[in-house]
Amino acid sequence: MTRTILIGAPIDTGQKRPGCLMGPAAYRVAGIAREIAAEGHAVEDWGDLKLPALQQVTSPNPAVHSLAETLGWTEVLRERVEEALALGGFPVILGGDHSLALGSVAGAAAFAAGQDRPLFLLWLDAHSDFHTPLTTTSGNLHGTPLAYINGRAGFDAFPAFPAPVPAARICMFGIRSVDPAEEQGMAERGIQPNDMRVIDEHGIVKPLRDFLNRCRREGGMLHVSLDVDFLDPSIAPAVGTTVPGGTTFREAHLVMELLHESGLVTSLDLVELNPFLDDRGMTARLMVDLVGSLMGKKVFDRPTRAK
Fold first, then answer.
1. In degrees, to the nearest 5, what angle opens at C-alpha 250 toward C-alphas 246 and 254?
2. Is 127 an annotated catalytic residue?
3. Residue 116 annotated in active site
4. Does any domain span residue 247?
5. Is residue 305 one of the residues assigned to a domain?
6. 229 counts as catalytic
7. What is the pLDDT of residues 136-184, one digit of tens each?
8. Is residue 306 part of a domain?
9. The model's pTM
10. For this structure, is 129 an active site residue?
11. If I label 231, which of 128, 185, 259, 281 is the partner at 20 to 30 A Cα–Cα?
12. How far is CA 250 from the centre of its chain?
């Protein structure tokens, strides 16, 4: 039985389209605690985080906005995730836009370093999020966390990332939107994303299983960051950055089932859900259903729905 700890991160300052701050409430209404408990796991809800007092910070890039707020969320998320892991818990961060990963993965990395274990990262996303505060043209810091996690330069306003995660321990999966500056940065850092072309050619299973086997061989901890836009917008419309050609319902569940079978996942982000853009809660329910698969729910456990 897993001690699952829900941590609400009502963040929408990492981008400019309001609504992601309602994400934690939507997950709760969609029954995430009930779904996890149904698979025999303990569930604790630590409530929603709040911003600390903000620092006076500026960026040399005039496009960057909400830097002080992003730093504040990074600070509290790192502390809370590390605390949950130290208590033997499995933290599930309910977002909130993807800037929350600046803090959640930092907390996981700090804990892993303290245990003398490598941290592996599975990035399930349409976007590479490999900008820095210096390269972003939109100024949206939800497009920067993977660069911070990997140790890319340009994050002088942020605390140093604890034990940056090297390319060999990062699996970018489902990618289909990369800016030129991000592509250049990834090439310089030796990161080769598993884009949808890779999945189309080789299927879901092989590249994911290869990554999981590497994590197992090295005794790693595995943080999974699941963005709504990993899914095709036809089944998950509640996201402000839709990109056609995402994973299908069945492909997404297969990913979660493989992760459950691996027994390697130690922390999880659920990000970029914007309930204001949803269709009668369908995206929130799908994300909760995917968490059910990650926690052990089988395909034959799902009841037939009326047509």
1. 100
2. yes
3. no
4. yes
5. no
6. yes
7. 999 999 999 999 999 999 999 999 999 999 999 999 999 999 999 999 9
8. no
9. 0.96
10. yes
11. 185
12. 20
